[in-house]
Every structure is written in C-alpha cells, then in structure tokens.
C-alpha cells in the first residue's frame, strides 16, 4: 500500500537529491574538479576519481622518492621516436637547433633552447613510473621544474591548463595542480645521462602522480589555456580518442 | 526445514547493485590484466626484469586496457557507495545478527566483507601514484606498487572462488526460492543454505 505521505516524502527526497546534485555539479565546475572527458558512459567515474584526488591532494604532496640503489636495471621503452624528417634532423644534430616554444596565455611568449633549459635551476628525483599496461620502473630524472619555465614566460593568472605538443601525435594537457607541482619536470636527463631518444629526447615531461602516458615525450611546444573545450576535440588530450582517460592519477 | 527471515529492500537492492558492479569489475579487471599478464614482487617490474609469475594468458595490446580502466573505476565507485550503504544500514538495523545462516556461511560472508573487499580497495589504492602521494603507507605495508598489483590479483581470484561457491550453494538449496527471496524479499522456506 503506497500512502500519500510516502509519495510526498519520496518526491521531496528526489527533489532535494536532484538539487543537491545540481549544486555539487556547479561547485565542482567552479573549483576545477571536472575533467574534460566528463561526458559519456564513463564520465561519472572519471569525474568522481578526478574530484576526489584533487580534493585529497590540495596540499600538493610529493610522490614517493627512492634511493639510488632502487633504480631499476630495466627501463623499457614503449614505441619508437618520431620518424618525421623534422625530428630525425634535430636528432642527428643532437638537438642543437631544437627549441621549446611557449605561447598562449603567457605574458612573454618565448622559446627556449636545450642549453637555455640547462642553465635554469636543475632538479632531480628518483621516482616510480607505471605504464598503463601494468609494468613499471624506477629511474632518476633530471631537468627544470615546469613551474620555473612557466613563471619565466609569465603564466597568466587566468590560465587553467597547459597543453603539450610533441613531435608525434600523443599531445596531452595538465591542470595547474600537476603543471605547477614541484616534482613536475621538463626532463632532459635520466639516470645520470642524457635522455635517450626512446625515452623522449631532447626533453620530456615527467609527471610523478599520474601514469606514464601523461609524461609526454619529444616536446616541441606548450601552450597555456583557460579552457580545453576549444583545444583539439575538447577532451584535453589525444588519449580519450584511443580510449584512455585524460586524468590518469588512477 | 527452516523459515528464513525476509531480506530488507535495502539489503536486496545493494546485493544486486554489487552483483552487477562485481561482474563489471571482473570483466574490466581481466581486460586490464591482459595488457601485461605478468606479476612481480616489490616496487617495480617489467619485461626483462624477473617476474613472480607469468600467467598463462595472452598479452593483448589492443587498447582494451583503456576502457578497462574507465569501467573498472566507474564500477569500483558504484561498489564502494553501495557497499558503504549496505554496511552502515546493516550496522544500524542489526542485519549482521541475521539468524538465517549457519556458522560456516557467516564466516564466509564475514571474510568477504571484512577482509577480502577491504583488501581489494586497499591494494587498488596502493597502485595509484596520486593516492600514495597522499598516503604512502598504503603501498608501504604491501611492500611496493607491483606487490600491490599481485596481491590485488590473488584477492580477486579468492573473490571469484567465493562467488562460485555462493552461486553453487544457492543452486543446491533451491535456486528459485532463493532468487525470489533476494529479489522480492518473500519469506523463503528452505532445507539448505546459500
């Protein structure tokens, strides 16, 4: 028997629930807790994970760091370096003519050579990197903090994401929480040597709190934006088009 | 022959939501595993490094790990929310003093709810570089990220064994009556156990 009171209570609960969800959605969007690939079948899961991680890491904790003795003897490489003439020519010239371009919402659009980057304060960390496939390795990475380079270019306070374009098709983007994180490097060295071609020479991104595919290799250009909606297909990276999530903090 | 107390609507609803979420977690978990069906111990492991076990499964790099992860985390959220609802309401209503089960059955359910499911969540979180930056002890107590992945696999296998036993018991003790009981909440009269 369904009483009138029950119908009214259920109705009120449903209305309260729906408005609560609407308020939560608006707050989440306001505080940058919604990933660009929030739509579709898996969007709710992507959003819950991203929002939960962002709230739990508001204090920007560091990913775990290791001793030199823990560096993996094997550091496999996925995929080959870009075969384009442009990249191959730079590789043959040991990247003397390579420049990293920075544009978009920055006060001083600029470009940096490899030696420009090497003259900036150097940072190293020994961290664990997991491939989305399941394997992983520990390595020492050396480079300049991405936050340092963004500061030199004069990152606009309105910018919310940084988009990274490599010499291959695996472009990607980071929110400012990861872009400005102290461990996020533009890495030019690995395990005490130069970065090998297969590991992303001359410079790759190293993002310590996400899966390996977010650490974009073979960097060519980066651009600061306020929204990812108009970049590419609006999903924040090339990853969702091959079925991978934009956020990979897991 | 005994008469079982009927299950509450909330117990029935969370049971079926969790059943669906478990199926999705299992399918997506296998999809993820097939991208690299080798298990390691410690922090790191890759082709060329010594493995703990090479599972006799094909290595599939067809992109199924992408939707696998998305489905895995979506269903994990569903499972956690439905599971928490079940636990909290069960503690409030005294469901866990339910007298329809015998000791072996109670022990099995207790191990699943208190040991295996929490171990799945724990080792799942221990594989997340974002989560272990917040709470490094998650991975430290398991002995490394790859150890967490390996334990996750074995606990999942234990849950699949439980599921097989659970479904067998339901079948042996009167499939129709048991299913009707868990779907409609009708009082079940039965001679066996599930």
Molecular structure report:
Chain A is an alpha+beta fold. Chain A has helices at residues 4-30, 43-56, 85-92, 114-119, 146-153, 176-179, and strands at residues 99-104, 110-113, 123-130, 136-145, 161-166, 172-175, 185-190, 193-194, 204-206, 219-225. Chain A has a five-stranded mixed sheet. The longest helix of chain A is centred in the first third of the chain and has 27 residues, at 4-30. With 194 residues, chain B is mainly α. Chain B has a single domain (2-190), classed as Transmembrane di-heme cytochromes, Chain C (Fumarate Reductase Cytochrome B subunit, Up-down Bundle), CATH 1.20.950. The longest helix of chain B is centred in the middle third of the chain and has 30 residues, at 64-93. A two-stranded antiparallel ribbon of chain B has the order 1-4. Chain B has a two-stranded antiparallel ribbon with strand order 2-3. In chain B, helix 1 (9-33) packs antiparallel against helix 2. Chain B has seven helices and four strands; from the N terminus they run E-H-E-E-H-H-H-H-H-H-E. At the A-B interface, helix 2 and strand 4 of A face helix 2, helix 4 and helix 6 of B.
By DSSP (H or I, 4+ residues per run), the number of helices of chain B equals 7
Can you give the helix content of chain A as a percent range?
A: 25-40%
- Evaluate the radius of gyration of chain B: 19 Å
Instruction: Estimate nothing, just give the exact number of structural domains of chain B.
Output: 1
Structural class of chain B: mainly alpha
Structural class of chain A: alpha+beta
**CA-based shape of chain B:** elongated
- Which stretches of chain A of 5+ consecutive residues score pLDDT under 50? none
- The proportion of strand residues of chain B reads under 5%
In CATH, the homologous superfamily of chain B goes by the name: Transmembrane di-heme cytochromes, Chain C
What is the residue-averaged pLDDT of chain B? Answer: 92
Output mean pLDDT of chain A: 94
How far apart lie the N and C ends of chain A?
46 Å
Largest sheet of chain B: 2 strands, antiparallel
Spatial ordering of strands, largest sheet of chain B: 1-4
Q: Which stretches of chain B are low in confidence, meaning pLDDT under 50 for 5 or more residues running?
A: none
Cα-to-Cα separation, first versus last residue of chain B: 14 Å
Helix-strand pattern of chain A: HHHEEHEEHEEHEEEE
Secondary structure tally: strands of chain A: 10
- CATH homologous superfamily of the largest domain in chain A? Oxidoreductase, molybdopterin-binding domain
């Amino acid at each position: 028997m369904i009483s009138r009171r029950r119908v009214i209570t259920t109705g009120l609960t449903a209305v309260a629930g729906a408005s609560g969800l609407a308020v939560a959605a608006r707050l989440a969007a306001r505080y940058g807790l919604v990933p660009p690939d929030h739509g579709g079948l898996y969007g709710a899961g992507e959003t819950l994970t991203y929002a939960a991680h962002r709230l739990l890491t508001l204090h920007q904790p560091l990913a775990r760091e290791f001793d030199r003795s823990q560096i993996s003897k094997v550091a496999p490489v996925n995929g080959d370096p870009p075969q384009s003439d442009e990249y191959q020519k730079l590789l043959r010239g040991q990247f003397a003519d390579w420049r990293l371009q920075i544009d978009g919402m920055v006060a001083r659009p600029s470009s940096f050579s490899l030696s420009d980057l090497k003259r900036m304060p150097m940072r190293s960390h020994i961290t664990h990197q997991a491939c989305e496939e399941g394997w992983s390795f520990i390595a020492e990475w050396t480079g300049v903090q991405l936050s340092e380079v963004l500061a030199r270019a004069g990152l606009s306070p309105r910018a919310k994401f940084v988009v990274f374009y490599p010499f291959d098709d695996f472009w990607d983007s980071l929110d400012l929480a990861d872009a400005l994180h102290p461990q996020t490097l533009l890495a030019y060295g690995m395990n005490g040597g130069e970065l090998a071609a297969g590991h992303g020479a001359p410079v790759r991104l190293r993002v310590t709190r996400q899966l390996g595919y977010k650490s974009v290799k073979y960097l060519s250009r980066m651009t600061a934006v306020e929204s990812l909606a108009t970049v590419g297909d609006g999903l924040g990276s090339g990853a969702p088009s091959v079925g991978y999530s934009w956020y990979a903090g897991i | 022959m005994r008469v079982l107390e009927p299950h509450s609507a909330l117990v029935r609803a969370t049971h079926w939501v969790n059943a669906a979420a478990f199926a999705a977690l299992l399918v997506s978990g296998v999809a993820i595993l097939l991208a690299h069906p080798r298990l390691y111990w410690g922090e790191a492991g890759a082709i060329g490094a010594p493995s703990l076990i090479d599972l006799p499964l094909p290595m599939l790099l067809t992109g199924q790990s992408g939707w696998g992860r998305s489905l895995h985390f979506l269903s994990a959220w569903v499972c956690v929310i439905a599971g928490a609802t079940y636990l909290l309401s069960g503690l409030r209503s005294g469901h866990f003093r339910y007298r329809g089960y015998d000791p072996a059955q109670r022990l099995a359910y207790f191990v699943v709810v208190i040991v295996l499911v929490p171990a799945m969540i724990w080792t799942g979180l221990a594989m997340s570089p974002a989560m272990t930056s917040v709470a490094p002890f998650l991975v430290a107590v398991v002995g490394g990220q790859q150890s967490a992945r390996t334990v996750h696999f074995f606990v999942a296998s234990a849950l699949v064994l439980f599921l097989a036993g659970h479904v067998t018991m339901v079948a042996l003790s009167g499939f129709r009556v048991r299913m009707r009981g868990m779907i409609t909440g009708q009082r079940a009269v039965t001679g066996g156990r599930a």
